[in-house]
Design the sequence.
């Protein structure tokens, strides 16, 4: 059985992690499936629980930017990004330090590590009490939509993990931005909770990784990902009678069997926070498909469109 813990269960959760068990926990982006990053067997258990077809590298969560120095090489640009965006939804890919006490499996044998300092108070509390770096992918079965509530986590992983810490719905609702700053040219591997615009304002122009699932610099960026069971129809301007509609902005087409608004006022941040929960809510056999209206390609809209494109792929 998976224990459902709250604020008062942090000591217990930390103990489970230190004993090599898997604990799901809330972050400001999505729920993570955490393991002690230094424990090979615990990290292997993550892949087993998710049913991942391959070993994708995982994001390593630490309590503070100061803890990064023992794990990766931190240059001036990385230090600036950490100072500006941590704690928060930015994962930085950096060269792994030779002495880094992180399972090689967690980074899939790469000579880099993706690090992030989560802003969620329960994630911070867990990191502080466990006092180990925590490897954590999103707490969903491989290929499914990322969880933004404890219920989402339990619906897929109940019985296969030791515990979930329930912190309610995630504030941002979309995964962290993954930025590779391990070499001269910064490369955006995954759009996410920190927009490209904000990052470029701090470090200048950033190249956006090509849609190439076999590219060695962006492992894990499989074309088909985040998939609901129903087909997704993107950039919908009308709707069929049997379809569910994921609407954005004031004038949604009428006639859908069910309509949910990502954001009525056309706010991309609000839409990001609602995206995964609404995709789950509409992914039901009584609908023929989920029609999704266009989302503007600005701010978090870029990350939303990236996830929608993957969800529509099959
Ligand atoms: O918001 C998030 O990032 C959530 C929460 C739990 O922190 N985590 C998350 O993890 O989304 P996951 O495993 O679902 O996605 C990790 C992404 C993958 O696209 C993976 O390929 C990339 O980060 N990644 C991790 N380590 C990397 C590395 N060393 N080099 C390149 N990409 C890396
Ligand atoms: Mg994921």
Sequence:
């Amino acid at each position: 059985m998976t224990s459902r813990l709250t604020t008062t269960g942090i000591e217990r959760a930390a103990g489970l992690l230190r004993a090599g068990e898997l604990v799901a926990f809330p972050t400001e982006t999505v729920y993570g499936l955490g393991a002690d990053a230094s424990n090979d067997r615990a990290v292997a258990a993550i892949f087993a629980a998710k049913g991942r077809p391959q070993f994708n590298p995982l994001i390593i969560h630490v309590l503070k930017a100061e803890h990064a120095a023992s794990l990766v090489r931190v240059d001036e640009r990385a230090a600036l990004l950490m100072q500006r965006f941590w704690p928060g939804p930015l994962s930085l890919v950096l060269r792994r330090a030779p002495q880094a006490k992180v399972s090689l499996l967690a980074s899939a044998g790469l000579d880099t590590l993706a690090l992030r300092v989560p802003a969620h108070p329960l994630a911070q509390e867990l990191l502080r009490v466990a006092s180990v770096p925590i490897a954590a992918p999103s707490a969903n079965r491989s290929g499914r939509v990322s969880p933004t509530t404890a219920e989402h986590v339990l619906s897929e992983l109940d019985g296969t993990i030791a515990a979930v810490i329930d912190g309610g719905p995630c504030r941002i609702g979309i995964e962290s931005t993954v930025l590779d700053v391990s070499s001269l040219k910064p490369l955006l591997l995954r759009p996410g909770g920190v927009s490209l615009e904000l990052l470029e304002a701090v470090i200048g122009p950033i190249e956006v990784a090509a849609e190439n699932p076999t590219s060695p610099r962006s492992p894990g960026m499989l074309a088909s990902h985040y998939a609901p069971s129903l087909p997704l129809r993107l950039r919908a301007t009308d709707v069929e009678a049997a379809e569910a509609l994921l609407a954005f902005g004031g004038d949604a087409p009428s006639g859908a069997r069910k309509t949910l608004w990502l954001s009525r006022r056309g706010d991309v941040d609000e839409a990001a926070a609602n995206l995964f929960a609404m995709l789950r809510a509409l992914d039901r056999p009584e609908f023929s498909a989920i029609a999704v209206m266009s989302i503007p390609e600005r701010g978090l809209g870029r990350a939303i469109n990236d996830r929608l494109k993957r969800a529509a792929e099959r």
Notes: Residues 218 and 248 are 30 Å apart (CA to CA). The longest strand covers residues 90-95. The chain is about 25% helix and 20% strand.
